[in-house]
DNA sequence: CGGACATATGTCCTGATGGGCATATTGTGG
DNA sequence: CCACAATATGCCCATCAGGACATATGTCCG
């Protein structure tokens, strides 16, 4: 999970991932489209690969890199544990908490 | 988006976020639970706050930090653009692509 | 087999970041 | 208003990561 975040935290890697969303791409292709030097692309792809975010596939003398679903799916699952945070139900509860805190601020503790 | 990833890419910040999922916490409280020095906690909270992931609320002489939904919701939206990646539909298409590549490997291009 | 193309790796430099520690700041209650 | 509790900042250090550049590795084709 952390490795996924770390991999996506770099702007250029993020751009690469976004590019790969449209399908597999070769290293040079990525470099040209994103205006990056080839070695940098390779290095970023390495990080992405070690994070499990991409997969390689030899294709003549080029390597086609493509996105892998697993880490993103996993990220999605992690996020779901936070879903309650943006439920309306929760937002109402949020207000309730604020209210309680307000109360405790004015008087030590009372009301029921 | 990138700032969100960067904020979550640090192990201790990640732990803080996970802790805050259960509700607002004071700085010292976080420090004790996660076994971190107070200054470190404050610094991490600062990063989280600048990333919009948490919000502060004074409470006597302590500060209660709580999670904010927005960045997580945003992250969720971003992820949805990748949903096709793990649809069965897409996985079938994936195989098709592999197949095509196999073909092109063996013979320049044929079969229809 | 040799050269050309595509990609990977190594080195060097620099800026950013986390941790530890000391210290400043701020709010609170008496 | 003071002393203290809770938190924020500043400073120093060590580590790390990304960029530029040179070079190694690998693969296909004539």
TrEMBL record, chains A, B:
Top-level taxon of the source organism: Bacteria
GO molecular function, one term: DNA-binding transcription factor activity
Residues of the HTH arsR-type domain: 1-87
SUPFAM superfamilies the record matches: Winged helix' DNA-binding domain
PANTHER family cross-referenced by the UniProt entry: TRANSCRIPTIONAL REGULATORY PROTEIN (PTHR38600:SF1)
Record protein name field: ArsR family transcriptional regulator
């Amino acid at each position: 999970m952390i490795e996924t975040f770390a991999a996506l935290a770099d702007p250029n890697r993020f751009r690469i991932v976004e590019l790969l969303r449209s399908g597999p791409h070769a290293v040079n292709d990525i470099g040209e489209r994103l205006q990056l030097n080839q070695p940098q692309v390779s290095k970023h792809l390495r990080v992405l690969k070690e994070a499990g975010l991409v997969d390689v596939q030899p294709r003549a003398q080029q390597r086609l890199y493509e996105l892998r679903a697993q880490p993103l799916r996993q990220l999605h699952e992690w996020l779901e544990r936070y879903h309650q945070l943006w439920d309306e139900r929760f937002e109402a509860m949020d207000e309730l908490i604020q209210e309680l805190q307000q109360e405790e601020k004015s008087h030590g503790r009372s009301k029921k």
